[in-house]
Structure to design on (593 residues):
């Protein structure tokens, strides 16, 4: 449950960027454009920090739909934010002000650029905050609109239109099977609600066969794999990075790549647990190929942006490997890598943008010896290079270590390949830094090599601090996501003996064993299991399908999470339960049945 202030704050995460995007187009001069963009983006980030600071791990945020006739009437709430969602919203709202600061004075159409970035932020927040599968798909594809503009219009090279087409066509056609899968699930279960679909797809009496679930998993996999991107669906990424302006590359690497891995974490694994386990060897193969192949490819690149772009594909290989280890260690490490990659890759692209503004080229053979004239930049560039190869003390190390550890528990060969990948990452990262920073300075660029100015230092400093802080204290993230990972990974308990049937009937609910539990509501796990069954029965009764589900949960904390969700779905029930005591919950469910 949330109070009105928290509810308004969550809605503001959508409204502030949208309003800022519209107001930016109405400004009359460049100073007003910059002020509007910075004010709305910083306000959004401050709102995220407020929500994160007041977040209770055992009580996720829900926001009610205030309109009775809304398209969200079936669920009763508009937005949902748990620790994982807030983490990615915080990353997005953190990077947008940095991007706005980085483009000041470096692009021609700054007004349109600022508006597109804020609109993109609005769409991305919707992806992370709306627990509605069809709307997730809509916003999942909507991010292509501002990104097409950023790459195809704001890019400065002749191939920018080609790169924008590749981005749109790859991701759009890759998502078509996922759309068909979503529509199919709606025809079977009659709902787009995320939580109801998780319940229905994981019930012992599910209406979809295991083979059908595997096909649905493949459909979702296509949509998310292209977005990550996984090898062999990665061809569009280096081209998009090279043609995009600096801020576009920051958003692309820092946020958009995380949408695909977030989709695996939030949808593929909770929806299709058995299929995720069945196809995990396939994911390991793709991940290992991504780690080794793209690392070797990186060593052959001459464009600095392509070096970072291919290294991003390799790092996403670690993420997918950790996610499909299907244990809390590997999945926690995958989330750490996602957040760290958002800092480190964004900073590396910004560093490349800094030297590009002076050299007007990204081809490495024109670079050497800049440490002699840009010492401050060289130190910062060195720290981010070390973070990119996973040096202990930087944010990348805890994530990679946990991913390798979690993968080792289920697939030793994949873990060995992942360790070998860290050696390759050190090779290309150190090679790039050495080629740019040391050697004889080329006399052609003596007059253009000035060290970091105040604006450049300000947009690199926050990324530097975050990279070091989360490397030293990763528990700040792990504590936020631990409870939600437990929910995603939970396995169903065995149904109590007197409810051990495909259908939960009123006769069974009136049995002496059930009455005994009502008389002793604090009987531990037995009470937890009974109440879980009762809630499922009540849910199906409201849907007109009593007895379809008899699902239970693995821990008392997981049950409490579902109770909170349950209260929010039915206001009347919340009122009658007088605060939601366990005994009232059971009695009210019994009466409804």
């Amino acid at each position: 449950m949330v109070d009105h202030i928290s509810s308004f704050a969550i809605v503001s995460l959508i409204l502030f960027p949208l309003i800022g995007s519209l107001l930016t187009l109405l400004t009359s001069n460049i100073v007003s454009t910059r002020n509007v963009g910075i004010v709305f983006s910083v306000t959004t980030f401050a709102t995220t920090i407020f929500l994160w600071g007041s977040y209770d791990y055992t009580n996720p945020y829900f926001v009610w739909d205030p309109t009775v006739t809304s398209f969200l009437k079936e669920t009763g709430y508009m937005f949902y934010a748990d620790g994982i969602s807030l983490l990615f919203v915080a990353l997005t709202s953190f990077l947008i002000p940095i991007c706005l600061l980085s483009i000041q004075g470096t692009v021609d159409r700054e007004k349109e650029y600022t508006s597109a970035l804020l609109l993109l932020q609005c769409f991305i927040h919707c992806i992370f905050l709306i627990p509605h599968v069809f709307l997730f798909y809509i916003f999942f594809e909507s991010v292509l609109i501002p990104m097409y503009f950023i790459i195809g219009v704001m890019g400065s090279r002749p191939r920018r239109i080609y790169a924008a087409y590749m981005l749109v066509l790859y991701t759009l056609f890759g998502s078509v099977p996922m759309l068909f899968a979503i529509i199919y699930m709606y025809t079977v279960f009659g709902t787009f609600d995320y939580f109801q679909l998780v319940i229905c797809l994981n019930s012992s009496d599910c209406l979809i066969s295991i083979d059908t679930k595997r096909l649905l998993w493949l459909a979702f996999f296509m949509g998310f794999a292209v977005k990550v991107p996984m090898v062999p669906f990665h061809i569009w990424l280096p081209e998009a990075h090279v043609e995009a302006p600096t801020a576009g590359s920051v958003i692309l690497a820092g946020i958009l790549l995380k949408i695909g891995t977030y989709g695996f974490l939030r949808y593929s694994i909770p929806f299709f647990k058995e299929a995720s386990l069945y196809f995990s060897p396939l994911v390991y193969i793709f991940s290992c190929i991504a780690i080794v192949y793209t690392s070797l490819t990186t060593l052959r690149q001459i464009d600095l942006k392509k070096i970072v772009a291919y290294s991003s594909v390799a790092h996403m290989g670690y993420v997918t490997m950790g996610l499909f280890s299907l244990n809390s260690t590997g999945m926690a490490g995958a989330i750490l890598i996602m957040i760290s990659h958002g800092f480190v890759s964004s900073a590396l692209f910004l560093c490349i943008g800094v030297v590009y503004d002076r050299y007007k080229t990204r081809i490495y053979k024109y670079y050497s010896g800049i440490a002699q004239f840009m010492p401050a930049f060289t130190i910062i560039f060195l720290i981010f290079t070390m973070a990119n190869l996973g040096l202990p003390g930087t944010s990348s190390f805890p994530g990679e270590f946990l991913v390798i550890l979690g993968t080792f528990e289920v697939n030793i060969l994949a873990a060995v390949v992942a360790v070998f990948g860290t050696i390759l990452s050190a090779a290309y990262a150190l090679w790039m830094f050495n080629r740019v920073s040391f050697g004889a300075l080329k006399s052609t660029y003596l007059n253009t090599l000035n060290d970091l100015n105040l604006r450049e230092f300000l947009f690199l400093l926050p990324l530097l601090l975050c990279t070091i802080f989360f490397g030293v204290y990763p528990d700040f993230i792990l504590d936020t996501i631990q409870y939600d990972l437990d929910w995603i990974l939970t396995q169903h308990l065995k149904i109590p003996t007197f409810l051990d049937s495909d259908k939960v009937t009123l006769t069974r609910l009136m049995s002496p064993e059930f009455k005994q539990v009502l008389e002793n509501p604090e009987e531990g796990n037995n009470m937890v299991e009974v109440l879980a069954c009762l809630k499922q029965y009540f849910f199906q009764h409201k849907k007109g399908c009593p007895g379809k589900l008899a699902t239970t949960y693995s821990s008392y904390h997981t049950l409490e999470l579902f109770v909170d969700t349950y209260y929010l779905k039915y206001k009347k029930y919340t009122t009658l339960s007088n605060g939601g005591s366990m005994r009232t919950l059971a009695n009210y469910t019994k009466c409804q049945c």
